[in-house]
Design a protein that fits this description.
- By secondary structure, the protein is an alpha+beta fold.
- The protein folds into 2 domains: 108 residues, Alpha-Beta Plaits, CATH 3.30.70; 139 residues, Pseudouridine synthase I, catalytic domain, C-terminal subdomain (Alpha-Beta Plaits), CATH 3.30.70.660.
- Helix content is 22%, strand content 29%.
- The protein has 5 helices and 10 strands, in the order βαββαβββαβββααβ.
- Strands 1, 2, 3, 4, 5, 6, 7, 8, 9 and 10 form a 10-stranded mixed sheet that branches.
- A hairpin with an 8-residue loop joins β2 and β3.
- α3 crosses α4.
- It starts with a strand and ends in a 6-residue tail after the last strand.
Length: 257
């Protein structure tokens, strides 16, 4: 059996999830914490490769003894949660854990992931939102929010999202299915939630940059459909900064969720 852990983290101080040689990462912190707790090196397999500065409300990873698909410990999952937190920095917290079969894969067994993007849309940045949201000081009025909501609807369904992928990415297929694409305005924040069976590199951040162009009146909502059809990255908007992006939810089959 493997231990499936769910963690939340503030990504500001990290180069992303995956271990890198010369920079701190979430995976490196988990590697250290699990070895300190269990007394042997562990293989930590994450559900995604979040970028530098990206945050997570719900990131999933499995823990197994290095070179095996099993973890031998007398700790219950509940005790493991508390013990791992004691070995992790304050900006990384394990909040749940459970046993899953040895063949379970934290990344390939994901059914759906949901991301949240936060835009702080007031002239002066709230210091409590610093590095937690993208500060966009130019006002997006109610009409602009309405246009963004209309544009977000065009993204739902199964499409080729190559226009919303960072150039130079190497993937077998750029087709993805989006099940949720919603824009909401709330107390000076513009929130975008998107759920899909998978995401391309920088996909959410490019979508957000494009929706913001719609909100500003630079693009019409229906142009999203044209961008999808033509697959032209240059027709889409800028890549929004990492600081506003959160992995919000990870869904597995009911027996493992």
């Amino acid at each position: 059996m493997k231990l499936l852990i769910r963690i939340a983290y503030i990504g500001t101080n990290y180069c992303g999830y995956q271990v890198q040689a010369n920079a701190p990462s979430i995976q490196a912190m988990l590697n250290r914490a699990t070895e300190e707790l269990f007394g042997f090196p562990c293989d930590i397999v994450g559900c995604s490769r979040t970028d530098s500065g990206v945050h997570a409300h719900d990131f999933c990873a499995t823990v197994a003894k290095r070179g095996t698909n099993d973890l031998s410990t007398d700790l219950t999952p509940e005790r493991a949660v508390q013990a791992l937190c004691a070995h992790l920095p304050d900006d990384i917290r394990v909040f749940a854990a459970k046993w899953v079969p040895s063949e379970f894969h934290a990344r390939y067994d994901v059914l759906e992931k949901e991301y949240l993007y936060r835009i702080y849309n007031r002239p002066v940045m709230d210091p409590f939102e610093w590095n937690r949201a993208w500060h966009f000081p130019q006002s997006i009025d109610d009409e602009g929010i309405c246009r963004m909501k209309q544009a977000a609807e065009y993204l739902k369904g199964t499409h080729d999202f190559c226009a919303f992928m960072a150039q130079g990415s190497r993937v077998e297929s750029t087709v993805r299915t989006i099940t949720k694409s919603e824009v909401e305005a709330q107390n000076g924040l513009i929130l975008y939630r998107v759920a899909a069976d998978g995401f391309l590199y920088n996909m959410v951040r490019i979508i957000v940059g494009t929706l913001l162009e719609v909100g500003r009146g630079k693009l019409a909502p229906e142009e999203i459909a044209k961008i999808l059809k033509n697959g032209d990255r240059t027709a889409a908007g800028q890549t929004a900064p990492a600081c506003g992006l959160y992995l919000n939810r990870v869904q597995y089959a009911a027996k493992n969720d």
